[in-house]
Amino acid sequence: MYRYDEYDQSIVDARVDEFRDQVRRRLAGEITEDQFKPLRLMNGLYLQLHAYMLRVAVPYGTLDSRQMRMLAHVARTYDRGYGHFTTRQNIQYNWIRLDQAPDILAELATVEMHAIQTSGNCIRNISSDQYAGAAADEVADPRPWAELIRQWSTFHPEFTYLPRKFKIAVIAAEEDRAAMRLHDIGIRLTRRDGVLGATVFVGGGMGRTPMIAHEIRDFVTADDLMSYLEACLRVYNRYGRRDNIYKARIKILLHEIGPDEYRRQVEEEFAKVKALGIDPPAAELARITAMFAPPAFDPAAAGDVADRSDPDFAVWLDQNVRAHRQPGYAIVNISLKPVGGIPGDASADQIDVMADLAQRYGFDELRVTHAQNIVLPHVRIADLKAVWSALVDAGLAEANLDLISDIIACPGLDYCSLANARSIPLAQKIGERFADPARQRDLGELKLKISGCINACGHHHAGHIGILGVDRKGTENFQLLLGGSGAEDVSLGRITGPGFDEDGVVDAIERVTDKYLEVRETGERFVDTYRRVGMTPFKEAIYG
Amino acid sequence: MRLITGNDLATGDVVWWTGTDWSRHVEQAADAGERAEAIAREEEAARRVNVPYVIAATATADGPRPAHIKDRIRALGPTVRPDLTLKPADPAAGSWVI
């Protein structure tokens, strides 16, 4: 894992001191809310439906046990005993006091954490593959590059006031586990003739105008990547619209001028930027990369075999554990989606349990996924049973990864001041309707995603089944979408037709899944069947 | 009736204008009538409330009920965590929210 150097620590500490003074001035009435709001947002502090909400950055979703315990401590000491892991691989606390926010940031800084750039029109937390460093299919570890981009983008003087927020994802595998092409910039590391480089995609995003990112550069060498990103941002910063918040994202710029013209301008800018020499010296890249060296795997683990005699354990193994590139090790996915629970929520005690397991069995590493689950990326196969047993005791052993109850849901109208409808109760009802584990497994991979408003924090456009909550004359209404995907087979879902009330949309989903079971062919996932047969059979099943 | 709601500056708690002060309980909210916007401005300027705004509500025997679901959820707390609402011991507390 990356460890702060003196420079990293000093800028985070200085930011805490600065924010403490800003809060003091606000509480003393020396500055108005209009003046204070952009300052608090730059430190991740929102005013939400019930209270202040603090969004803490988890860079590329990577944590160690010390940091995870700090998240539990914050939940227990300053909030109401829980936190909410988000689709941006961050964590949010819903019940923060303004007068305590500086103390929280000071505590976070002691474990190399902060809330900087988790809001505002700047480059946000960098997303990455939760299996980085463990996946067999990656061409390189994406984390050093994500870290480099984090450092480049932190307090970048040109990009602190962009036209709109900006999200970057870095992956290094063909399988896209980070919704890479639904980011403002998506980077897929690749090798060409033995040279490490990247394919760069620009202009993706969800929200009210969902778009899939265009491939802007087939291959840029890793040596040039930072210059190329700088050029991509400069063109956006120069021409992105600032007159209309709904047309300010880079996806709209690409839509308006076209990817070819954008590419031409980026190439022109790239030639100028390259001369500035902003790409890191080899020694600095080596310093960062060394911090992501593989852990000391035990070669003797290669012969490990899991004891599958406990049927519940065997089901969890099949559903939540993925192959590791190191023989004898596995990737453990901890579901934060118990049936009837709140997607992404974890209590302080549960967060501590996950930290303990990472420290004892997982080389001290954890990952937050964009699907609002937690990953222990390096667990010896011989230890899986002990890990599972501890998860069972903590209520964290739901064996539903990528199944219909593994629902992504935004906080919705229960917490969010932007929301039009409640996402969480709907997720709970769907989870309960499909609670039978055998039924879920029969349905197979089915990614269901719920947003409580058009801003799409719940990624509904990218759900195999997506749900969008809207306000219809003061009443919650839910639109159903089919056929989306945030993975390497990226696609945007299509609305089925008129919306439903809460119970109605649960019934509609059941009619959709029944139709799928009726018409699927061998080996087809739900989304495969949808793509083969189209919307019509499902629409007929839903609306008659 | 017209209510004024906002958040306590230091704690962030949802608060309601009672006619003379601010309360966390919507039952104590008062009809601010035509002066609602002016009161909101005065109270915000005095830092007794943060980001106040005026909403429509209905008077009932149990007290004022905000017209919009968003403000009703603000008044009680998240519907999915009754233990974190203002009345965690009252199972019927949320019957008017949805």
From TrEMBL, chain A:
Transmembrane region(s): none
MF (Gene Ontology): 4 iron, 4 sulfur cluster binding; heme binding; metal ion binding; oxidoreductase activity
Residue ranges occupied by any Nitrite/sulphite reductase 4Fe-4S domain in the UniProt entry: 119-272, 405-542
Keywords annotated in UniProt: 4Fe-4S, Heme, Iron, Iron-sulfur, Metal-binding, Oxidoreductase
One Pfam family per UniProt: NIR_SIR
Gene3D superfamilies linked to this entry: 3.90.480.20, Sulfite Reductase Hemoprotein, domain 1
Residue ranges occupied by any Nitrite/Sulfite reductase ferredoxin-like domain in the UniProt entry: 52-109, 342-392
Official protein name in the record: Sulfite reductase
Source organism phylogeny: Bacteria, Pseudomonadati, Pseudomonadota, Alphaproteobacteria, Sphingomonadales
TrEMBL record, chain B:
InterPro entries for the chain: DUF2849
Domain of life: Bacteria
Record protein name field: DUF2849 domain-containing protein
Lineage, highest ranks first: Bacteria, Pseudomonadati, Pseudomonadota, Alphaproteobacteria, Sphingomonadales
